[in-house]
Amino acid sequence: MTDRHTEFEGAALPHLGAAYNLARWLLRDDHHAQDVVQEAYLRAFRFFDGLRGTDARPWLLGIVRNACYDWMRRNAAIADTLVFDELRDSDAAGPASVGFDPAHLWEQRALRGRVNAAIEALAPPFREVIVLRELEEMSYEQIAAVAGIPVGTVMSRLSRARAALRVALQDESIGRHAAAPERKTRS
Amino acid sequence: MTMPDDELLTPLIRREATRHAPPPGLAERIAAQARGAATPTPTPLQSRTDRPWPARWRWLLAVLSFGTGAIAASMLMSSVTLRSGAADAIGDELAASHVRSLMAAHLTDVSSTDRHTVKPWFAGKLDYSPPVHDLAEQGYALIGGRLDVVNARPVAALVYRDGPHYINLFVWPAPEHAPSAPTRQGYSLAGWSQQGMQFWAVSDASPAELQNFAQALRTRITSTSTTPTR
């Protein structure tokens, strides 16, 4: 019994960083992300026995991801729109939902703030492929396993998400030379 | 199957987008939670009562169809269900509290082997006064106490040392004691009620050893109440 706990901790806790990052990006709130990750790990622990021989990372992130969507379903009023339309939502993706909070607008001036805001503004199914691909550097197959969608869908969502991000970050001349470090220091 | 990553966007995101780090303590909370969780693989003790359910139901149905002893049987069933419901939830919670107390380096709020230090410490922190006894002579030295929360209410937790093992003794006022399985997630449990208080001892010592502790403490509490020496 203690072996099982040790085994679970050894397999699951190393992925806590990725799990929390995904949940935090999907839910956009520290406290909710903590609660959901904790709940997801408990779920994972219950079903841990079926895992033998498979890669723990996509399996675990899949549970975290589903827990996030469950949370959003339960809290539809404060979470993202849940009726997700592949085409419409990709067109709608943009920094528009950021709002007019002055502090937020000021933060937006910084490149970091703009990049974060652009990703946050994506609909969750686009946001998650960006986070998993660009930040967690997972393969398309792994992302497909996490999100429970075909690899082809992963690729098409990724390309739409990137297109939306390019549009959102246009002012930063992402298409040309935004990667130059001096852009960061410009105020 | 290959699609090139965007040569400008990808580095920009990787450089600028926030990687949200889990807050400190989350890993510990998850580990403690897993340790406190009911293990889905049933322990031999649980499986003995869990597995024959279908058989019992069939038996129950047979009894009902004959119309004899049905009420008695259903009463028996419901008592079994109640027992494994409420009491086991307490058992899980106590085992989890025990584990937390050892993990978080927060075993005691007041560290003293003197019961005259430990007992007054609880005054003002709880609306009752738990009986505090040192059992060093019997091999169970009192090492301190702390406040804990069980069943959403603050309770006294007394900590004893039994050789290499720690024993957490949870005490709160309750008229009667709900029985529980003697082990929970690998930890031993012993519960009883005495003088209007409910006592729960939790330890990684063996169930038999913990029963010895429980017996020693019961005897001590009984003897001190009949001869009020203070």
Characterization of the model:
The complex is a heterodimer of chains A (187) and B (230). With 187 residues, chain A is mostly helical. Chain A is 67% helix and 0% strand. In chain A, helix 2 (16-27) packs antiparallel against helix 8. The longest helix of chain A has 19 residues, at 56-74. Chain B is α+β, with helices and mostly antiparallel strands. Chain B has a domain at 102-226: Protein Transport Mog1p, Chain A. In chain B, 44% of the residues lie in helices and 21% in strands. Chain B has a 7-stranded antiparallel beta sheet with strand order 1-2-3-4-7-6-5. In chain B, helix 2 runs antiparallel to helix 5. The longest helix of chain B has 34 residues, at 70-103. Chain B is elongated and about 80 Å long. At the A-B interface, helix 1, helix 2, helix 3, helix 7 and helix 8 of A face helix 1 and helix 2 of B.
The percentage helix of chain A is 55-70%
Q: What are the segments of chain A in which pLDDT stays under 50 over at least 5 consecutive residues? A: 90-98, 175-187
Mind telling me which CATH architecture of the domain at 102-226 in chain B this is? 3-Layer(aba) Sandwich
Separation, N- and C-terminal Cα atoms of chain A: 57 Å
For the largest interface, the chains and their residue counts are: A-B, 48 and 35 residues
Q: What's the arrangement of strands in the largest beta sheet of chain B? A: 1-2-3-4-7-6-5
CA distance, first residue to last residue of chain B: 81 Å
Named at the architecture level, the CATH assignment of the largest domain in chain A is Orthogonal Bundle
Given helix and strand content, the structural type of chain A is mainly alpha
Q: Output the CATH class name of the largest domain in chain A.
A: Mainly Alpha
Q: By CATH's scheme, which homologous superfamily of the largest domain in chain A applies?
A: Winged helix-like DNA-binding domain superfamily/Winged helix DNA-binding domain
CATH topology of the domain at 102-226 in chain B: Protein Transport Mog1p, Chain A
Give helix % range of chain B. 40-55%
Gross morphology of chain B is elongated
| Total DSSP helices of chain B | 7
